[in-house]
Amino acid sequence: MSDQGLLTGEHFLLGDYAAAEGAILAGCRFFAGYPITPATEIAERMSTRLPQIDGIYIQMEDELASMNAVLGASWAGVKSMTATSGPGFSLMMENLGLGIMLETPCVLVDVQRGGPSTGLPTLVGQQDMMQARWGTHGDYEIIALCPSSPQELFDLTIRAFNLSEKFRTPVLVMTDAEVGHMTERVVIPQPEEIEIINRPQVRKGDMEPDHFRIYQDTDSDGAEGTVSPMAIAGEGYRFHITGLTHDELGYPAMTAESSEWNIKRLVKKIRAHRDEIIQLEERYLDDAEIVVVSYGISARTSQWPIEQARKAGIRVGYLRLITVWPFPEKRILELAKRIRAFVVPEINMGQICLEVERCAAGQAPVLGVHRLGGDILEPQQVLGAICKAAGRSDLLQTDLQNRQTER
Amino acid sequence: MAHSDMWLEHCGHASDSQSDWVTGLHPMDVLLRGERLPHIWCQGCGLGTALTTFIGALQWLEMNHNWDLDKVSVVSGIGCTGRIAGYIRLDSFHTTHGRAIPFATGLKLANGELKVVVISGDGDIAGIGGNHFIHAARRNLDITVICVNNFNYGMTGGQAGPTTPHGARAVTTQYGNFEHPFNLPYLAAAGGASFVARWTVLHARRLEWTLREAMMHPGFSFVEIIAPCSTSYARWNLEGRGLDPQKLGRRGLEVMKHYQQVGKIAHDTHPKDAAVKVNEKGEINAIIEGIFLNEPKPEFRAAIENQAQSAKERWSAVKKALDRRPKLCGRTDFIDRTDVQLGGFGGQGIMSAGRIIGQAATIYDKIEACFTQSYGPEARGGAAGSQVVVAGEPIHHPHLIAPSSAIIMSQEAYAKYAPNLTADGILLIDDGLVTLPEDHRRDLKTYGIAATQIAEEFGNSRAANSAMLGFWAAIVGAVSREAMRQSLADSVPPKTLEVNLSVFDVGFEKGLALKKDA
Q1: Cis omega before residue A365 (within 30°)?
Q2: Residue B190 in contact with residue B180, Cβ under 8 Å?
Q3: What is the pTM (predicted TM-score) of this model?
Q4: Which tens digit of pLDDT belongs to each residue from B90-131?
Q5: Helix (H), strand (E), coil (C) string for B141-157
Q6: B135 touches chain A (CB under 8 A)
Q7: CB spacing of A73 vs B368 below 8 angstroms
Q8: Residue bearing the bigger pLDDT, A404 or A387
């Protein structure tokens, strides 16, 4: 077996470490970060692992710098990543925006903890979901993935890199303290079994530098959602890029028309490929009259209550958002037209719940199940909401409430 | 072919409609984005000169040191100076306000072949980006930072900033600046920069020589360029006040001349003594110039690369150990969900014990396990707790739902966790450390083992958790003995392996015996 410093096989691995190993297998060779609980173990793992495979790990002076260093490395042609949690995620918003504007492939892992502000450093939360969508200023589309186990943290970090490379945009892995700090079996395939996507790129000598357009549309208004090849530093293209609204050449172009072109380009390249980006896990939806829509750790802990409710005769289905952004608007509306209600468990006051409500467009009520950070949802809390949504509150008095039945 | 035609061809814009501008008549055209001109800078601004000297230095390096300018990246932040990146025909990055240095850090670290130059203003580098500036200096990464200092925020209309002299006026300091400015060379030197210099734009030739030297310097080099802001700063301060605002170019020139007149070339001045001085009215009356510091120091990227060998050796060792892991066929009987609580105090290996159980279950018994622990400073030193769930099927709820067994190694942990055990749950204690109180739960099946004492007898008290693990494996039976031994072998330092396995076996045998009796 060739050993290129890549970890393979079965391991009992911490979620945060799994994210690091996923990144390495995806080809990430640059990590810049700043210590923050509960994401620190990703940085720690990268600081040990990257020098083993000729990669670079650097601890920057803060998260503003970390995000920028990641963008710089990407423009030098190296796949790059950072990882943080709530307070650091807030600081990264500024340059996440720059990454989106410059169309820079890179990955940001947010191991969510309870907020706002310093909040609950060591304890779980899912309170950054809307910040992931709208946290940096301006109009844009973002890709965010939500793992519910260390294995999936590994898998989705690879997918995040692939999507970021394919669509030339930063991709968020929105995990949480529970999954990041959980140790489980992680199966790492051989490198050749993993699909790796690399950015469309012009290399030295591919074309006349002066014919190169760093943000070229294939058609006049970018309707197809164009992802154009990027050049990297040092290859002779002598390109310019700016966080200002720009034209095809990357030059500042500050008019309403340029802005229309520029922003639509950022939005369309993701919207046009929504079906490809959106990944859902669905169960029991055929006969469902209640659908539990959830993600990450909350989706995982909703499975037992769903099974219990089905045993009690409630036709409840399960929809797990593996991709949270872009949101599966069509699927939610489709379901809304034929079900009785949605139940949305999440560890916040109701964020994705609002999105489900928006997409359901009044066709089905949406019942949120909330826990405000600090701990994962109690199974019977979710079960209670399912019963309530089904109009079967009578069941709540039965032994379904007995948490020991999961045994 | 005329020389100018060659430039024209090199620029490649002769046939390109968007670049009518390029004439090829000026020797610097080749490094300018002609199609972007005219620039946005005011008449009398010092930035044109700053850019000219920079291009001059690059061309000299190309000519005399065979620099491949394709390998030069220019990074800037926001502000008037930040626009330089947009006019120079090199790979150029116009980033966010203050963040040019960390962006440049990423570029340079990811590709050591690149020559990376940051050019930005005083507000960008010393104000919003001040933290990045001192940390980059500290690292001594091989990049060049050129800060064009015009003493105010020019692009937003002339607000005071981190370099505005004390007493000077700006839009926001109409009664005189009540703050004190940074002395940038001193800041850079204190941060750890290995090359520090300053010139005004009117010392164009010396500035260009210094820029060449700075870019060739193997480490963090910093050059401050003092430049007039003809529109804003000059408007409010004695240096330019009273001059016709209709003639900005003239005003800029007068201010530049003033700076030159008060300038004093003094190489090797201690950066501490290089502060820009003002009189009581806030008028600049002394600018020390020259190369203040040029001391080679270990470079940052090289320091990282120096560690690659040790890192690779570490990997080889890890890989070897992983490859040695035996392949067990796993257990075939179904294991019900078993929630295990572990508790003790810091240093007993409560975390590793939980992890060892989980690893044994997943990797060697090939069933499911989920291990969680409490983190944070509160978990260190004092009480320590960890939880592991073992099951024959996927574990949806990662936390303990019904802890049916517990490994308890301190009185405090007993008090905390014993009440949570299920009815008839199995409580395993280190009975050298835990004394059962009068009101001990009679429904629990309680087993004691002098784990710490046993470990001490084997010469390593830290192996006590292994005795508890053996004890647990024998009594609870959710994970096989062989799997536990393998997992233990993967987890403890090789030197202590033998002791740990022996202690584990003692615990296991004792557990078996007690179970038989029960």
Answers
A1: no
A2: no
A3: 0.95
A4: 999 999 999 999 999 999 999 999 999 999 999 999 999 999
A5: CCCEEEEEECCCECCCC
A6: yes
A7: no
A8: A387
